[in-house]
Amino acid sequence: MSFSLTIFYDPTIQYDIVDQIIKALKDVFNINFVSIISKPLLKNTFDKGRNQYDGQKLLNSLIDKEKLTYFLWLVDKDLYVPGRNFVFGLASQYFGAIVSFHRLETMKMKIKESIHECGHILGLGHCKENCVMQYSKNIEEANYKPNTLCLDCKKLLLENEKKIDENKD
């Protein structure tokens, strides 16, 4: 795949964790990395009443304000979006995604959710098969799904590569 990704990470995350995520993303998507940048969360996205960060505002800060595309932001804080108690991550197809490690206790879970959100960046939606792209509403569901793509999602990914290449021009 000719796709390149920028990785941002919360400075509270140890770099060896970021490195393991990068290796997993390379294995699943065969992608390149433009840069790997430490980036703290924006204070104006913190909701004191919820004691959480607004994930949508964080994501929009990079897409709308900084005009970035093809990025994954790894954070160690609890995230929410309006209407939900929390999210493991969120993405905007063909733009970027953010993953919260706050509720993900194991490295396996951090990798799995990073792969899931990166799949959204590459145009994949939620999948009903035994696939990393399954929607997870709780930690049990997230833990149960595999860390690999099903055959249908792999096929769709190849089709989406053309769209990504067209967006670069």
Structure description:
The protein contains five helices and eight strands. The relative contact order is 0.16. It has helices at 15-29, 55-65, 107-121, 139-144, 151-168, and strands at 4-9, 32-38, 46-47, 52-54, 71-75, 79-80, 89-92, 96-100. By secondary structure, it is an alpha/beta fold. It has a single domain (4-168), classed as 3-Layer(aba) Sandwich (Collagenase (Catalytic Domain)). Helix 1 (15-29) crosses helix 3. 38% of the residues lie in helices and 20% in strands. The chain has a five-stranded mixed beta sheet, sandwiched between helices. Strands 3-4-6 form a three-stranded mixed beta sheet.
Mean pLDDT rating:
92
Terminal CA distance reads 16 Å
User: How does the helix and strand content classify structurally?
Assistant: alpha/beta
Number of domains: 1
Per CATH, the architecture is 3-Layer(aba) Sandwich
| Distinct helical segment count | 5
CATH superfamily: Collagenase (Catalytic Domain)
CATH class label? Alpha Beta
The portion of residues forming beta strands comes to 15-25%
CATH topology: Collagenase (Catalytic Domain)
